[in-house]
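thread: overnight batch results

M.L. [08:02]
morning all. the overnight job finished for the chain we discussed friday. pasting input first so we're all looking at the same thing
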Amino acid sequence: MSETVTVDEALKKGQRMINYPVIAIQIVGFGAAYYLTTFPTLPQWIALIVFLSGFTGAWLYWSFKITKWKLWAFKNVDDVYDLKYRAIKGKLIWPDGSIWEKTEIWSAADKKKWIQLQERFIEYDEFDDSHDVH
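M.L. [08:03]
and the structure it wrote out:
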């Protein structure tokens, strides 16, 4: 069953589902790396690996979860054009063809659903011009 949500609701869900966890993962990784630097006997390269793991973990999380959000959001929002524009502007997704967009990790089944959802971008809203404006 499909639920209709506003663009604002979809973007807020995207922030909660994607961006907040990404920020948390980065903070934990960076914080752990900083903490490790307080141990003088510990090699600094370990802190560097933990630091980079925070960034890598956050990117991997985004790469998997953004596909789930996109499927949900573009299925349940009426104005897909506004959703796409505002999601790009709000740094939730990347523009089409961007090198960063290519880091999204899609399962075969989800990719098939996404391709089917693309038809929503070529459907035109019906416009009723039968009423005279005086």
